[in-house]
Design brief:
By secondary structure, this protein is α/β, with parallel strands linked by helices. The protein is built from eight helices and eleven strands. About 2% of the residues have low confidence.
Length: 233
C-alpha cells in the first residue's frame, strides 16, 4: 500500500538487513544507517516518515539521536533495545519515542507496530500524506497523480468520474457538497436533474471502497443536503 520511507538506524548489520527485507516486502522505501550520526545526516537530506532506532550504538546512541530528531521533526520513532529493564523503556519514551520493541523480536510484530504508528501519524497530520500527490484517509490511500486507490492492501478500480467525485470529497473533508455542486464540478456543465446520476455514482464508489456500503465509513450522506467525508476518520 504505502510508499512511505522508513529509516533504520542500528549498528548490527544483520538486524538492519532483516528489517529491510520485511519492510520492502510491504512496499516501503528503506534507508539504512549504522549509527546515530549517520542517521541524522540521512534525515537532513531525505524525507522520512518513520524511524526505527536502536538504543545502544557508537558515536551517537539512540536516546541522544531521539532527542536531536525531536528538535526538528515529529515522525514516529520506534526504539529497539536488547535491554529489558523498565528504566530503559521509560527513558526512551520520555525522550520522544512513540513505541519500544525488545530484541530479539518478531519481525511481523514490528511491521504491525510500524503500520499502526504510520496510521496514527497520518491522522495527526490531518489525513494528508507528506507526499503531495497522495491523500490518506484511514485505510484508504488516493494517489492523485496515478488515479489509483488502495483500501488496506487491496487496489480499488474506479472509473474516471468515480475517482473525481472521491477526490473532490477527500480534498475537502468536512465540507458538504450538494448533488448539483458535485455534478457541476466533476462533469463541468450545468446541473439538470442530476440527483439520480450522483446517487448512482456514490453507491458504486461505496460498493468499492466501503467494508459495509450500508454503513459507510468514508462517504457520509447528509440528508437533504448532500455528501461529505468527515475530517476525522
Amino acid at each position: 500500500m504505502g510508499k512511505e520511507t522508513i529509516l533504520i538506524v542500528d549498528d548490527e548489520k544483520e538486524i538492519r538487513d532483516l528489517i529491510e527485507i520485511y519492510l520492502k516486502n510491504e512496499g516501503y522505501e528503506v534507508l539504512l544507517a549504522s549509527d546515530g550520526e549517520e542517521g541524522l545526516d540521512i534525515l537532513r537530506n531525505n524525507e522520512v516518515h518513520l524511524i526505527i532506532l536502536d538504543i545502544m550504538m557508537p558515536k551517537i546512541d539512540g536516546i541522544h539521536m531521539c532527542i536531536k530528531v525531536r528538535q526538528i521533526a515529529e515522525m514516529p520513532i520506534i526504539m529497539l533495545s536488547a535491554k529489558t529493564q523498565d528504566m530503559d523503556k521509560i527513558m526512551g519514551l520520555t525522550k520522544g519515542a512513540d513505541d519500544y520493541v525488545t530484541k530479539p523480536f518478531n519481525p511481523l510484530e514490528l511491521v504491525a507496530r510500524i503500520k499502526s504508528q504510520l496510521r496514527r501519524y497520518m491522522k495527526m497530520s490531518g489525513g494528508m500524506a507528506q507526499k503531495e500527490n497522495e491523500i490518506v484517509i484511514g485505510e484508504m490511500v488516493i494517489s492523485v497523480s496515478t488515479h489509483e486507490v488502495m483500501v488496506g492492501n487491496q487496489e480499488v478500480k474506479l472509473t474516471p468520474r468515480e475517482f473525481s467525485i472521491l477526490e473532490l470529497l477527500a480534498r475537502n473533508r468536512g465540507i458538504v457538497f450538494s448533488v448539483d455542486q458535485i455534478y457541476e464540478t466533476v462533469w463541468k456543465e450545468p446541473s439538470f436533474q442530476s440527483d439520480n446520476t450522483i446517487m448512482v455514482h456514490i453507491r458504486k464508489i461505496r460498493e468499492k471502497v466501503e467494508e459495509n456500503p450500508r454503513k459507510p465509513r468514508y462517504i457520509k450522506t447528509v440528508w437533504g443536503v448532500g455528501y461529505k467525508i468527515e475530517k476525522e476518520n
